Structure formats: C-alpha cells, structure tokens
C-alpha cells in the first residue's frame, strides 16, 4: 500500500488520482509506502533474479507489469581508468544495457504499467530523446498509443529512430526541451493523456532500483554514487531508494550523491555552489550531451535535497572532457556509452585530479545510455575506416 504525498506541504493523495503535482501548492509529489511493517524480508529479495521486479514490494504496480525485462544491468569494475586516477574501487553501472538502451526503461516499465492500472488510454512525454525511445517501446508492448514531443534538430539519431520505429506519434517542436515539456504538461492536463516525464512520481519509483541493484551487486552500499544530471529525476530517485533501504533497516549508510552537469547546461551546479533555495533556470542550455541539455530541471527540488542531505556535490565538465571520457570508457574499459553517460565518470576524473576523493572510496558511476544512441557524435570523433583494394598485398600494406 502506498500514498502520494507532497514533498512541500505534506498533502496526501489517493493512489487512484491522476495527479502530477500537489493541487494545493504545486510542488512535486512522492510515493510513500508503509515500511514499518513491510511484510517481506531481505531474503525474499535475494531469492529472486537481479531485476527491477526483485523489489516489487516497494513499487506501486499491483497487477501484471508491462515489462521487457529491464534492469539487472551489469556493474563493472573500471580497473584501468581507476588505476589512472588512483581509485581502487571505481565502478560503472551500465544502464545502456536496458531494453531500449537507457535507464529510462526502469521508469517506463513502472510508468506505463501505472497508466494501465489507472485506466489511461494514451501516454505522452517531452524528451531529449531517450524518454521518447523508451516510452514508444513500452507503449508498443502495452498496445496503447504514445505521443512524444522532441526539441527539433536536437535529438540524437538513434533515439529518434527508436521512437519512430516503435510507432509513437513523434512531434518535433521548434524550441528547446524545457518548452516542449511545458507544452506536453498542458496537453496532458487538458486532453487527458497520461504524462510520463519524470515529474510523474511513479517513473522515479522504477528508477530508484538502479541504487538497490547496485547495493546487491556490490554487497554493500557504496560510499558515493555519481550521476549525470538533466531533469534531475534519476539522482533524486536513487537517493529515495537508499532512504527506503535505511527505513527498512537493511542499511544504515547512505551514499554521497554526486551530480555532474555539462558546463553549458549547469543550473543545478550553480544552485549548489551558490546555496540557492530555489534553482534559477538557465535560458539557453547547450552541450554535445543532448540527454542533459536541460535548463529548468523539473526535479530540482528533490535533487538539491538529495545532494545536500548526503554531503554531496554537483560539478560541471566541459564537452571536451565528456568526449574524452567517452573514448576512454570505450577503449580502456570496453564500455560503450553516449556522451551524457560519460559525464558521470568525467566528473569523477575531475574530482580525483583535484584531490577531492579518498583512494579507497567505493564509487559507483551510473552510465546512463548506450553508445549507439548517438552514432553521429561517435563517427565524428573517429578516423574513418581505411579502404583498400581486395587483395592481401594491400591488406598487409595498411597494417604495416
Ligand atoms: C535522461 C538521461 C539523463 C538525465 O537524467 P535525469 O533524470 O533527467 O537527470 C542522463 N543520461 C541519459 C543518457 C539520459 O537519457
Ligand atoms: Zn503541497
């Protein structure tokens, strides 16, 4: 059993209500479970395969979920990059290995399941790309239509390809992501579509399992979790999951939450650095990491709390630093990610070089999306293949 609760005024809403924000004060909602007498044990979880649904008692879905077998992603020890940075315990949780190639699938399996549970007939979102790819895929699985709004010309090729192929109604808005989100929120409220951006509290319920799986894979709560921050939903979700583990008595440790943004799109970094109570939106965010090109993060209020309450930090990295780390991950660790994902590890590199990290710290970087999401940015960084005549003499010549 759960309730929807406003994080600002504490107003409570019944789970059957279609509501995205508090109707009294307009702040964000969160899902609260009764964890005092949970009716399950850690052993129940451990008896199930590693997957988002291992944690079903603290998820809001009561019926059959709409699932494509999301979660259960690998946790890699980054030995080479770790050695270079003097960090023995540096890990990457590869969320690019979810069904649509990003962690958004964790949010969408729960979100689309909830859409059906609530009797909604059509789902919608605004997206920098991955949310739309994922929603299109889960709507297809559920057999319901999806409407997605994208900032025109600012979405990586692979993501648009997915949204189109899986049959979503794809609309390119001549404006940035923040404007597209305003529009789709208005549309959902007036036309009765179900909104599946990360303002939807159920999406974050799915995403919190990134942290829960990490704890189970590592055998302990890491000292630090590092995430790229766009709309700031994921970092908020992972923190919430950790708080619930604590409330359940399964741990008494919470990781230091560390958010990384691109230098051209860093409203959260600014809010943390300046101690702002309320985040100031950035007008024209720009970065090669299009998944985090967001000036007015919807979940800022939750994310600022997550960072501040854990003694964490938010820092920025340049596009060059992001791309360099994308290449390092690919070539030194065999981990293929899109640019936004490399930001988390680039942020750790920057902190290590500034002497801000303990060499024994157990650090888990969430790498959020797959390399093939943005093939154009990959190709631009690489030398083209060497073309030769079809004979062995030419082959030997180029290898010499
Ligand atoms: C959505 C996304 C992010 C940002 O996550 P938020 O929850 O919006 O902060 C980062 N990386 C990738 C690949 C994404 O798709
Ligand atoms: Zn409220």
From TrEMBL:
- InterPro entries documented for this protein: Ser/Thr_Dehydratase, Ser/Thr_deHydtase_PyrdxlP-BS, Thr_synthase-like, Thr_Synthase_bac/arc, TrpB-like_PALP, TrpB-like_PALP_sf
Coiled coil (residue ranges): none
Which cofactor does this sequence's record say it needs?
Answer: pyridoxal 5'-phosphate
Task: Note the NCBIfam families from the entry.
Answer: PRK08197.1 (NF006050), thrC (TIGR00260)
> Which family does the similarity line name?
Belongs to the threonine synthase family.
Q: Name one GO molecular function term.
A: pyridoxal phosphate binding
State the species of origin.
Answer: Methanoplanus endosymbiosus
Its keywords, alphabetically, are:
Amino-acid biosynthesis, Lyase, Pyridoxal phosphate, Threonine biosynthesis
Stretches assigned to the Tryptophan synthase beta chain-like PALP domain:
66-369
N6-(pyridoxal phosphate)lysine-modified residues are: 104
Tagged with keyword Amino-acid biosynthesis: yes
Q: Which residues bind pyridoxal 5'-phosphate?
A: 130, 230-234, 368
**Tell me, what is an example of a GO biological process annotation in this record?**
L-threonine catabolic process
Q: In which pathway does it act?
A: Amino-acid biosynthesis; L-threonine biosynthesis; L-threonine from L-aspartate: step 5/5
EC number(s)?
A: 4.2.3.1
What does the function comment of this entry state?
A: Catalyzes the gamma-elimination of phosphate from L-phosphohomoserine and the beta-addition of water to produce L-threonine.
Record has Lyase as a keyword: yes
Catalytic reaction list: O-phospho-L-homoserine + H2O = L-threonine + phosphate
Task: Spell out the CDD domains in the cross-references.
Answer: Thr-synth_1
From the record, give the transmembrane residue ranges: none
Name recorded for this polypeptide: Threonine synthase
